[in-house]
Design a protein that fits this description.
Helix content is 81%, strand content 0%. The chain has 9 helices and no strands. The protein is mainly alpha-helical and 165 residues long. The mean pLDDT is 85. The relative contact order is 0.09.
Amino acid sequence: MKNATSLAKSKDFDGAISLLNDIYNSYDVLDSDVIRIIPYFQKAGRYSELEEHCVEVLIPLIIKINKKIFSGSCKKTQISFICLSISKLFNKLGLCAKREKIEIDQIKYHKKEKEYYKKYEEYLSASEELHNEFFNLIMDDTLGLEIDKWPKNFKNKFSFFIESI
């Protein structure tokens, strides 16, 4: 990543794009690393290629990364964070459209950003409800719902869930 940043600082945006694409195919990266490439396309004068690259390369990569990171979480949690990452991607696309002074794209990307952010909130809320239901079921079956009668170590360990009840 540092080498790509160095290339971009020396105005070799095509080199930075090429290097990042190689990194994306070869190493484990974070979704924040994936969206780093977006402004480089715009600065390299390759804005017209950007949306296609996002749809064909970056969004599938974001999905893969988030599924791996949240593999131990329920599907709703996975989807919520995929939506958050895609929302950030559309935010970056909107900034590029603004710099290019392409208002129709800016409006389109802003709308997509908001749509994905709303889905993130909806799926995250549904995920939290599932976790709370599961917690209540487990606690009812094991310790009962009278929290004040629980051993202190259980109260401490599950304080996050208790506060959300």
